[in-house]
Amino acid sequence: MGKKYEKLGKDIVEKIGGSENVSTFTHCMTRLRFALNDNRKANLEGIKSLDGIVNVIESGGQVQVVVGAHVEQVYQEVVKHIKTSENENNEGSHEKKGFLNKVIDFVSGTFGPLIPAIAGAGMIKAVLALLLVFNLITRESETYYVISFMADTIFYFLPIVLAYSAANKLKCNPVFAMVLAGILIHPNMSELRIAGEDVSIFGIPMSLVNYGSSVVPILLIVWAQSYIEPFFKKIIPDAVKIIFVPLFTILVTGIIGVSLLGPIGSFIGDYLAMAFDLLGAQGSWIIIFLIATFWPILVMFGIHYSLSPLSVAQLTTLGYENIIGPGAMLANLAQGVAALVVGLRVKDAATKQIASSTGITGLMGITEPALYGINLPKKYPLIATMIGGACGGLYAGIMNVSRYAIGHSGIPAIPLYIGENMWNLYNILIGSVITIIVTAVLTYILTFKYEKDLPTKDVSKQNEGIGDVNTTMIKSIVLSSAMKGEIVPLSDVKDEAFATEAMGKGIAIDPSEGKVVAPFNGEIVSLFPTKHAIGLLSENGIEVLIHVGLNTVELEGKYFEAHVEQGQKITTGQTLLTFDLDKIRQAGYVTQTPIIITNTYNYSDVSTSKTNTKIDFNNDLLILKA
């Protein structure tokens, strides 16, 4: 698995235009986010075609590579191939971007790295709420006190955390930025504010405000630092830069920050709080309804994280949040449910596997794999998702549902709604039930219109080219071999996914000849671009996946040749794939080839009657009992 991520990381950097084309690079929960010096140098279609990549999006001045749940592993490999020092010398080569794109890029790049920590703190709050609900602790206990301030820490020190992230984004010294943020929340600053007396610096008056948990002031101050620090680096001689650049950067930026930018940011924050109050009193139901309905579209264009500052600001000013949380949670549940229903209904083995796995991750709050892998390509599940989200969102909006902490927007987020008003919990559960039922029913109905050849359990029909059918009390079908070689029990295959029968029952063959033939009359339902695997469907409903070798996807089609196309009709014995067996083995790959019945659930038993280990093309291989 590590080898796979290593190669993927290297390929992404190569196709993004190389390390020298990367201005800044970070990641969020599901995607890599690149700000490039020249977007035209990036081969976006090439990245999209890489195994393990869900999609590639250009939005908000960024190139966003959607990976899914394994984003952290891929990020660690990509970062090995990016030379930050080279990027710092290429500031003049950046593409010109519009003001709005710059703002979106800055906000996304600053808050993106913080989201996991903020979500983690929110989930600690959720655990704490559950402990209270089940009377395992009390609010007066030391345990509650300690865990509570652990969860609040990131919000209390939010200016410092934001300063570090913003400085990295703007390419100025993050330690200087953290010092500037520390000035805002220093205990002496709080004492001056509590004293209530006029304070000035060199005759410049200071407006004393509470900067704890603030967002806007430190962003403005770091923005100023990004101009002030380079100015002093430019005019101060190299011999004394190490002394005077920090001196003047912190002193000048600090004075401007506490006298001008900090109060301006606080003023903006106060008006945001007023706006939140007004929104809560007059139209919060509209926001929840719109987010629940159109959240997939925001995710699709990669701008959903740009709303994070509003969410954080509302929570830190009012103590609750309903701009993103309720609507996003309902939308994510709808995404997961739609994908799962598709997985239950379709016949294509590859689609069924993708829909089932991405549907589960969608319910957990990570929806990009389901969105790009199933719902968006098929379209009708996305329509069902938006309608289901809208119905649940309308109820949650009318009930003015809010959450008390920020975390993942999926099933694990339910405890975030436990707090002072328990009706928030009850109403989000009711909204979730509405969303799930509407989405599931609508997706199921739409499959009849948009999915052809839905699954059937009628496997008693005689099929030409599938050996003899035993017409005893228990009907059975004999499946012929697609390869020549030595039989290997599935439990002995050196791949856990196949060996544990997680993908279905079957058998494996270690081939002695580099050829795969059709084991029956039927159709090619899926042909992987790398030509190492092929999905077949017989005329009487048997779904078969033939996967030549283990991890051979890494060869990217090298040594493989396909003689058929997806959707093509096939006849028994027809050559489907050929491959250079010797070269694949010389490259270090195991050539055990699993032959899986992916719709195993349609049969009471799948077994082999072979007593010897050698097998030839079209010999009897598996017995499927109906």
From TrEMBL:
Predominant localisation class: membrane
This protein's GO CC annotations: plasma membrane
Active site: 28
Pfam families named among the record's database cross-references: PTS_EIIA_1 (PF00358), PTS_EIIB (PF00367), PTS_EIIC (PF02378)
Domain PTS EIIB type-1, residue spans: 6-88
Membrane topology: Multi-pass membrane protein
UniProt entry keywords in alphabetical sequence: Cell membrane, Kinase, Membrane, Phosphotransferase system, Plasmid, Sugar transport, Transferase, Transmembrane, Transmembrane helix, Transport
Residue ranges of domain PTS EIIA type-1 in the record: 495-599
Molecular function GO terms recorded: kinase activity; protein-N(PI)-phosphohistidine-sugar phosphotransferase activity; protein-phosphocysteine-trehalose phosphotransferase system transporter activity
GO biological process: phosphoenolpyruvate-dependent sugar phosphotransferase system; trehalose transport
Entry-linked CDD domains: PTS_IIA_glc, PTS_IIB_glc
Transmembrane annotation, as ranges: 114-137, 144-167, 201-223, 243-273, 285-303, 323-344, 382-406, 426-447
Coiled-coil ranges per UniProt: none
Stored PANTHER family: PHOSPHOTRANSFERASE SYSTEM TRANSPORT PROTEIN, PTS SYSTEM ARBUTIN-, CELLOBIOSE-, AND SALICIN-SPECIFIC EIIBC COMPONENT-RELATED
Name of the protein: PTS beta-glucoside transporter subunit EIIBCA
Organism (species): Priestia endophytica
